[in-house]
Design a protein that fits this description.
mainly alpha, about 40 residues
Length: about 40
Amino acid sequence: MAPSLLLLDAVLMTGPYVGVPVPIDPGGVLVLFRSFGFQS
């Protein structure tokens, strides 16, 4: 599951996702997921 999260993280960092720009946080992918309301 880690590879998938990394891929998603890369996509989020490359540009806005779901029309919402995501700042690169050292917190990890979980923070990004929580920003979009997704749960792992």
